[in-house]
């Protein structure tokens, strides 16, 4: 009951942010991308690590964010990863303003959303990102993305990530 009530507060905040969220759609060529914030679900950690390795080899600066309710140690993860947990949430289960301020201060030029859209915390982070170019596959909120890739749920997640990278590298703005 308590958890459902807290989700109501968070979902209401997300709805308000979504309604206020108007932006000019932009496109960015892969070669012009410098700083990336990546949102992902922990179930895809292995694929995300490989994706980040590819991005950093291409000279991109990457920070990756995910959410797990219980604080668990991830000693093998690099400082590239920020795993949010309930310690980052206030009483209403909304990310603390100090953590959001830190999240916004990274000022990425690109946000890559690899989430399935089910985590309200990650949706909240998405809506609070300052990135000008947004890439993802969550077609429920298609208007929030600049580049939307269709994902076949039956295909392997790593295949989707490789396709996402292919389309990002193929995009030409001039």
Tell me what you see in this structure.
With 174 residues, the protein is α/β, with parallel strands linked by helices. It has one domain (2-21, 30-170): Rossmann fold (3-Layer(aba) Sandwich). It is built from five helices and six strands, in the order αβαββαβαββα. It has helices at residues 2-20, 45-57, 97-105, 120-128, 157-170, and strands spanning 35-39, 61-67, 81-84, 110-113, 133-136, 147-148. It has a six-stranded parallel β-sheet with strand order 3-2-1-4-5-6, sandwiched between helices. The protein starts with a helix and ends with a helix. The mean pLDDT is 86.
SSE diagram, text form:
Layout: H1 2-20, E1 35-39, H2 45-57, E2 61-67, E3 81-84, H3 97-105, E4 110-113, H4 120-128, E5 133-136, E6 147-148, H5 157-170
Parallel strand pairs: 1-2, 1-4, 2-3, 4-5, 5-6
Write the element-wise H/E pattern from the N-terminal end onward: HEHEEHEHEEH
Radius of gyration, in Å, reads 16 Å
- Major sheet size, sense and barrel closure: 6 strands, parallel
* Tally of discrete structural domains: 1
How much of the sequence lies in strands comes to: 5-15%
The end-to-end span amounts to 53 Å
Number of helices: 5
Give the tally of β-strands: 6
CATH topology, which one?
Answer: Rossmann fold
Which structural class best describes the helix and strand composition? alpha/beta
Mean pLDDT, to the nearest integer, reads 86
Strand order of the largest sheet: 3-2-1-4-5-6
Shape descriptor reads globular
Q: Which second-level CATH architecture applies?
A: 3-Layer(aba) Sandwich
User: Unreliable segments (pLDDT under 50, ≥5 consecutive)?
Assistant: none
What level of helicity do the residues show? Answer: 25-40%
Would you state the CATH class?
Answer: Alpha Beta
């Amino acid at each position: 009951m308590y958890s459902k009530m807290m989700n109501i507060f968070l979902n209401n905040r997300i709805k308000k942010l979504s309604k206020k969220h108007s932006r000019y759609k932009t496109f960015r060529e892969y070669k012009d991308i410098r700083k990336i914030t990546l949102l992902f679900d922990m179930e895809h950690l292995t694929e995300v690590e490989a994706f980040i390795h590819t991005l950093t080899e291409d000279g991109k600066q990457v920070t990756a964010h995910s959410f797990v309710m219980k604080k668990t140690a991830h000693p093998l993860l690099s400082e590239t990863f920020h795993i949010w947990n309930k310690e980052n949430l206030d009483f209403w289960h909304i990310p603390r303003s100090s953590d959001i301020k830190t999240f916004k201060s990274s000022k990425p030029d690109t946000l890559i959303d690899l989430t399935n859209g089910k985590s309200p915390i990650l949706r909240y982070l998405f809506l609070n990102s300052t990135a000008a170019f947004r890439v993802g596959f969550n077609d429920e909120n298609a208007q929030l993305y600049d580049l939307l890739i269709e994902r076949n749920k039956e295909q392997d997640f790593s295949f989707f990530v490789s396709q996402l990278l292919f389309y990002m590298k193929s995009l030409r703005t001039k």
